[in-house]
Design goal:
mainly beta, 10 Kd Chaperonin, Protein Cpn10, Chain O, two-stranded antiparallel ribbon
């Protein structure tokens, strides 16, 4: 178990559970074309990005520090040290952000 005094979380995840820190998307954002989208606009079913802060012993694909994509409708929230986190199962994660390609590689498999 992590020591809360050293900045760790006082929790140990079990089985296939993943604890993530939700990225703050509450403010205004811009579209790809540069159009300003106000925070009051409601979007349809939109997936959310979050950073993995803790994983259970049965988690196989995701590791701490990964940026993951999930459906915010299928979540459970928990508060630790006055901060909100989201608890997911590994199977509820749709994607893991890939590392950027290093300079000089095209990313094409020829």
């Amino acid at each position: 178990m992590a020591d809360p005094d050293e900045g760790g979380l006082p929790i140990r995840m079990l089985h296939d559970r993943v604890l993530v820190d939700l990225e703050n998307d509450a403010g205004e954002r811009r579209s790809g074309g540069g159009i300003l989208i106000p925070a009051t606009v409601t979007m349809g079913r939109r997936l959310a990005w979050a950073e993995v802060v803790s994983i259970g012993s049965s988690v196989r694909v995701v590791k701490v520090g990964d940026r993951v994509l999930f459906d915010p409708e299928d979540r459970a929230e928990v508060e630790l040290h006055s901060r909100s986190y989201v608890l997911l199962r590994e199977r509820d994660i749709h994607a893991v952000a890939a590392e950027r390609l290093s300079e000089g590689h095209t990313g094409l498999y020829l």
